[in-house]
Amino acid sequence: MASSSGTSSGSSTLIQNSGSEEDLQALMDERKRKRMISNRESARRSRMKKQKHLDDLMAQVTQLRKENHQIITRINITTQHYLNVEAENLVLRAQANELSHRLQSLNEIISLVNGSNCGNFDVEDTSLAFSEPADSFLNPFNLAYLNQPIMASADITCFSTNLHELIGI
Question: What is the spatial distance between Cα 141 and Cα 106, in angstroms, rounded to a whole number?
Fold first, then answer.
């Protein structure tokens, strides 16, 4: 009987072992299945995160291109403004140079008139001082180069004021 009970206990241990192995296999399969699901979810989150990062980068590229275009537009406008101001400055410099030469010529004429009349001018006889015709060289208003129009801004008024004071207008 001992042998029969030993066999039955051996076969129940074998049945328990095979049941235990099946449970272990089922447990391992369940863990494997959970791990596979977890990995899939992790991969899905990773893909979503990667897509979000890519979308953010694309939005940043769009924003930077827009800002770059605005900067280029501002640079072009500023460059055009600079060129306009530079051209205007060139014109103003030329006008100032011309006015300076005219003032210098008028000063020379005035000094010639004053120098030539110093000893010969009689206060009571004004006809002697300006006996020449009205279109003479000594009349600064009849000189051809002085009859040209002056294109100047209001900033040049100090030149014309000085000129008027010198020639007595």
Answer: 10
Statement: residue 37 has pLDDT above 90:
yes
Which of 118-132, 133-147, 149-163 has the least mean pLDDT?
118-132
Query: Residues near 91 by Cβ (< 8 Å), separated by ≥ 6?
Result: 151
**Rounded distance, CA 53 to CA 51, Å?**
5
Identify each DSSP E strand in the chain by its residue range: none
Between 167 and 74, residue with greater pLDDT? 74
* AA identity, residue 22: E
DSSP 3-state of 121: coil
3-state secondary structure of 125: strand
Question: What average pLDDT does this structure show over 12-24?
Answer: 68
Structure tokens, 154: 């209001």
The DSSP letter of residue 155 is: G
| Integer CA distances (angstroms), 100 to 11, 28, 127, 161, in order | 128, 104, 32, 13
CA dist 160 and 103 (Å) reads 9
Which pTM value belongs to this model? Answer: 0.43
Directed axis angle between helix 157-167 and helix 2-117, to 10°? 10
